[in-house]
Design a protein that fits this description.
The structure holds 2 protein chains of 2 kinds. Chain A is α+β, with helices and mostly antiparallel strands. Chain A has 9 helices and 19 strands. Chain A has 2 domains: 280 residues, Probable tRNA modification gtpase trme, domain 1 (Gyrase A, domain 2, 2-Layer Sandwich); 75 residues, Aminomethyltransferase beta-barrel domains (Elongation Factor Tu (Ef-tu), domain 3, Beta Barrel), CATH 2.40.30.110. Chain B is globular and about 35 Å long.
Chain lengths: 368, 124
């Protein structure tokens, strides 16, 4: 028997909105609303979508030297972060594999971390096992996380918030009141669009979500469209596109490893990762565009024209903005060049596909 | 007697003499969500009851469609290739999948009428 599912602070609102639910990482999460995944997806690309991502873990690390210490667990440059700026990075293991990917924001007296729902327990054990006495971890399980994503997100949020939310650049974060509610507002997301993730006290979450959702052009979006949006944007899903057997180099995430960290190392698996950056990897993550109409989904084999296996699709489906099937997966280095013709095996049938550049849809972040 | 027949796999079957038109029910399209691709059988495919005959892909997942009767595929709805959303818009009319011969009319007796199907989905 499985454990009962958790509910996020927004659960009752989702029920009222007619959501269809599915279990995800121990939570009963909305997969779609009555408008449907296609419309939720397009709404986010064209106007704005409101997402409940409260299943994700939020925590703070207090104490002097927190950034330098966390650098011993991740390859991202954290000591070089200015207060109010954030970084995408990964917890790595001794072979350079990815234990989780996360966002780290530096504030004056602490770091604010957002980690994957399914990795919460393992991440906390990993952090606590190495935590020096002068640092403390504060798990924020009394907060919801709401994402407002899309080209009109900034205008919408600016109507309810102070502190210049509209002009804060991508990958920055601020403690900020939204209609009087103390929030952590971060300009980031998982859709490829401009937008925010708003950390809000659990008891004010419904109020805030309702405030934003009644705005013209804003609609609720479930995990279904969240997945198609991030896939078109070429963003990795932990457990699917990256895991403990893939390194940040294989996954095409070297951009997230700062120059100093590449040179000096000092994180788990540093020797492997430094060597891979220098010599390349046997395989790499690529975009794959099936040339017909049939979607090729995760675990479909990628083969070469002779029928030999090249690798596997790790995420795949229908891209509503692309208007056709989109996928990503791993291919050997010599088959990973853009425009290489391959085949993907769908229900036993090899279908033509080609390697394409990621993302499928342009990322439209606000860089100030 | 006219009217559609229904299978427990959420297909509707319209009988016209010795041929049948087959699609998925409105209930099925509602459960699937936005349909983005329908993989239809080749003309001339010979089927026994329960054989895999088509696949309908929604944004979320792929679902197999099983042959509700034994027979041979004689026509497929080519409009679905250009516009699979017809399955959502009119599952039980323009969103039909294929037409097939009816080899054994007695197999129709195993199908439900509208009332029986409504009672069947009410219990799901």
């Amino acid at each position: 028997m499985s454990a009962p599912l958790n509910h996020t602070p927004l659960f009752d609102l989702h029920v009222d909105c007619g959501a269809k639910f599915a279990p995800f990482a121990g939570f009963e999460m909305p997969v779609q609303f009555p408008t449907g995944i296609l419309k939720e997806h397009t709404q986010t690309r064209n106007a704005a979508g409101l997402f409940d991502v409260s299943h994700m873990g939020q925590l703070r690390i207090f104490g002097s030297g927190a950034a330098a210490w966390l650098e011993t667990l991740v390859p991202g440059d954290l000591t070089g972060l200015e207060p109010g700026r954030m970084r995408y990075t990964q917890f790595t293991n001794d072979s350079g594999g990815i234990l989780d990917d996360l966002m780290v924001t530096r504030f004056d007296d602490h770091l604010f971390l957002v980690i994957n729902a399914a990795c919460k327990t393992a991440d906390l054990e990993h952090l606590n096992a190495a935590l020096p006495r002068e640092l403390t971890i504060d798990v924020l399980d009394d907060r919801a996380l709401i994402a407002l994503q899309g080209p009109t997100a900034a205008a919408v949020l600016a109507r309810h918030a102070n502190d210049g939310v509209a002009t804060m650049p991508f990958m920055s974060s601020a403690l900020c009141a939204v209609k009087g509610v103390a929030c952590i507002v971060s300009r980031c997301g998982y859709t490829g669009e401009d937008g925010y993730e708003i950390s809000v006290p659990a008891d004010r979450a419904i109020e805030l979500a309702e405030l934003l959702s009644v705005e013209e052009g804003v609609g609720p979006v479930g995990l279904g469209a969240r997945d198609s949006l991030r896939l078109e944007a070429g963003l990795c899903l932990y457990g699917q596109d990256i895991d403990s057997s893939t390194t940040p180099v294989e996954a095409g995430l070297v951009w997230s490893i700062g120059k100093r960290r590449r040179r000096d190392g000092g994180f788990p698996g540093d020797a492997v990762i430094q060597r891979q950056i220098k010599d390349g990897t046997a395989r790499k993550r690529v975009g794959i565009q099936p040339l017909g109409r049939a979607p090729a989904r995760a675990r479909a084999k990628i083969i070469d024209p002779a029928g030999d296996e090249l690798g596997e699709i790790t995420s795949g489906g229908f891209g509503p903005t692309v208007g056709g099937p989109v996928a990503m997966g791993y291919a050997p280095r010599d088959s990973a060049a853009v425009d290489t013709l391959v085949q993907v095996v769908v229900r036993g049938k090899p279908l033509p596909a080609k390697i394409v550049k990621l993302p499928f849809t342009p990322q439209r972040y606000f860089r100030g | 007697m006219s009217g559609l027949k229904f299978s427990e796999d959420h297909e509707w079957i319209e009988v016209d003499g010795d041929t049948a038109t087959v699609g998925i029910t409105d209930y099925a399209q509602e459960q699937l969500g936005d349909v983005v691709f329908v993989d239809l059988p080749a003309l001339g495919t010979e089927l026994a009851v329960g054989d895999d005959v088509a696949v309908v892909e929604s944004v979320k997942a792929a679902s197999e469609i099983f042959a509700p009767l034994s027979g041979v595929i004689i026509e497929v709805n080519e409009d679905l290739e250009a516009d699979p959303s017809k399955v959502n818009e009119s599952a039980e009319s323009n969103g039909w999948f294929f037409k097939m011969t009816i080899e054994d009319p007695s197999e129709l007796d195993g199908l439900m009428d509208r009332d029986a199907y409504n009672a069947f989905i009410a219990k799901l």
